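Study this chain:
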Amino acid sequence: MSQLVLTAVGPDRAGLVDELTAYLLDAGANIGDARMVHLGGQFALIIEVDPRNQDAGALRAALQGVGQRIGLAVTVSSPAAQPTPAEQPQRAEGGTCRIQLSARDQPGIVHRVTHVLRGHGANIEELNTTLAP
């Protein structure tokens, strides 16, 4: 199995996801994990794609053109190799946790929070921020 990771960014408009996923379906590929977001008039996505029985190289090349046609800058890469057990970084005991923080907006707040987490050896798997009145 030769998974691909597709990232795409471009001006948001209705139908982008429909057009991209229609192409993947027609190509015989399957979507695994996906994250998509609209921010400031831009649309960004990152998805794992399983080419199934298709030629991964041909699919990779075709996706560049598909992205261009629908208005997205597309990058396709192979996922990072999983480290062997001996190469795995040591995880702090305690497993995973979820942190929710509410604060008055200020420059550098995201950096300060992530810096503290890094100091404790934390690996951030997902981070969402929202400005609200």
Summary: The chain has a mean pLDDT of 87. Residues 84 and 90 are 12 Å apart (CA to CA). Strands lie at 4-11, 30-39, 42-50, 73-77. The longest strand covers residues 30-39.
